[in-house]
């Protein structure tokens, strides 16, 4: 909910209207260099026992979020999210004319296992990412 609120706030402050319809996903890869994103903190409580930082990224009409422990490198989290999001986009299956989207769990599991093994962020280079893309 907080990621959705952040996205709507950013859209309204930039003057872009928010659309309840999910636009058609493009056929070619999306550049996420200028995709809106940010960070916010969640206080201790439900669902996390300690304060966590959430890195988020808005792509097309979807938002991706990566929950980070306090000691994690937030710059690396943003880079990881920007490299993970386009690969997850290729794993989307649109379910209907609304905002109904489903990730293919098998593809998402492989991506998360390779790019975030055991939940640990890696410094990812292009050769490694190309190998993951070929594997997928």
Automatic annotation (TrEMBL):
Residues 1-39 are annotated as: Disordered. InterPro entries: AP-5_subunit_s1 (IPR029392). Residues 1-22 have a biased composition (Polar residues). It comes from the Eukaryota. One of its GO terms (biological process) is endosomal transport. One of its GO terms (cellular component) is cytosol. Pfam families: AP-5_subunit_s1. This is AP-5 complex subunit sigma-1. It comes from Charadrius vociferus. The lineage of its organism: Eukaryota, Metazoa, Chordata, Craniata, Vertebrata.
